[in-house]
Amino acid sequence: MQGSTMLDDTIAAIATPLGEGxxxxxxxxGPQALAIADRCFVPAxxxxxxxxxxxxxxxxxxxxxxxxxxxxxxxxxxxxxxxSFTRQDVVEITCHGGILPAKLVLEAVLEKGARLAEPGExxxxxxxxxxxxxxxxxxxxxxxxxxTELALQAANEQLGGKLSKRINDLREQVLNILAHLEAHIDFxxxxxxxxxxxxxxxRLERGIGFMDELLRTADEGQLLRRGLRAAIIGRPxxxxxxxxxxxxxxxxxxxxxxxxxxxxxxxxxxxxxxxxVVFIDTAGLREAKDEIEVEGIxxxxxxxxxxxxxxxxxxxxxxxxxxxxxxxxQVAPKKRILVRNKIDLPARxxxxxxxxxxxxxxxxxxxxxxxxxxVSCLTGRGIEPxxxxxxxxxxxxxxxxxxxxxxxxxxxxxxxxxxxxxxxRARDALLEGLTLELVAMxxxxxxxxxxxxxxxxxxxxxxxxxxxxxCIGK
Length: 474
Ligand SMILES: Nc1nc2c(ncn2[C@@H]2O[C@H](COP(=O)(O)OP(=O)(O)O)[C@@H](O)[C@H]2O)c(=O)[nH]1
Ligand SMILES: [Mg+2]
Fold this sequence. Notes:
The protein is an alpha/beta fold. It has helices at 33-40, 99-111, 121-128, 134-145, 149-159, 162-186, 194-215, 218-226, 240-248, 291-306, 322-330, 353-356, 383-394, 401-404, 410-431, 436-454, 460-467; strands at 11-14, 23-29, 41-43, 58-66, 69-79, 90-96, 115-116, 228-233, 266-272, 275-281, 309-315, 336-341, 370-374. The protein is built from 17 helices and 13 strands. β9 (266-272) and β10 (275-281) form a beta hairpin. The longest helix is centred in the middle third of the chain and has 25 residues, at 162-186. The two termini are 17 Å apart. The model is unreliable at 360-367 (pLDDT under 50). The site of guanosine-5'-diphosphate (GDP) has 20 residues, from α9.
């Protein structure tokens, strides 16, 4: 069971990634944190204080002991409640960063009475003790997972409470309207005055308008968090692997003149004008000659299906082939960039205009944005303009600072959509002069849904869903 209802026990976990490194940190939180540290840590020096006697925010050198033997030398940091991340007593033991030292230090504290923490349980305690709201807690995970500085900036804004403030304001607004209505429900003989009704409607409209504004940041918020998926496709030898290497700025994929060198899909994230873009170098969609290739092609198909952007690479020194055209047709419904590679060589490629005009799709299908660019993966020419186009197609318009402040995630989007639907129903009911009870009911749904975002109205299930996505030790 998650620790939400049992803040009275003491949890422990390794807070650093598993593996060999310079240092590892084992974190403890709970009423017994200091007592447990006393039982397994021997401070060096005669005058040294035990953790339970140490002042808050102090650091102590000594040895972690287990079954009478020293496990490792360590630095112990003591942070007393409420001045800690969880607002409980927290002890952080920094030891050598091997898998075994970290594991044995953890064993030692578990043997002395701590319980192994669940994923995200430290942050969950910070939330339950009012140190962070739910949107801020999620920002901690975003911060850890951020892959570009822009994503980091957005996570920091959310952690600082910018989104939470706006959500709380919105909730206040709707609550206010609700309070007004409820006053009228309590005195049904006094019918709601027409100008009051107008005023409430106007306020409700403003609230809905604000929800719309927030909802518009959802796509970009997703993009910053998980990155845009861009599949690099094209016939063998067109220069797909060379393009991946150019976009990453390093040699990641094997480049060779032998067709079919790339048999598996390779995924790498690059920072493109501040956006994390996951590039997928594919094995090509040609007919397979052996089993490995069959699997490679299956993965390519999957990569293409999941991609939000296609980079279709052509060899500009060769005429268009039947294979090129087949690919063109296959990915026609997708947002794509046609990349004419090898422009350092004499040009022999002619791309029919049906494929190069910007919004053409196959008959019946929705037209999709596309662009055509010339590059040379040999000289690097055209790579920077290509990055500009990728950014433009992924993120229309400028990346504005105030947008970063409120970049909502999928959970917020879902809650806001429910809030918006309820607010619209309330507005229509008010317009149609339906009973105020009905209006109030929908407004209450809206208030609760908005409250979910910051965790004001949060069920155990919701908390489990949010915190289970964290790593252990966070
Ligand atoms: N001249 C020239 N050769 C290139 C260029 N890009 C790639 N090549 C060569 O084309 C061949 C195939 O490249 P590769 O990236 O492995 O193609 P893939 O099969 O599509 O992944 C290699 O010999 C590359 O050196 C380019 O811009 N100019
Ligand atoms: Mg390749």
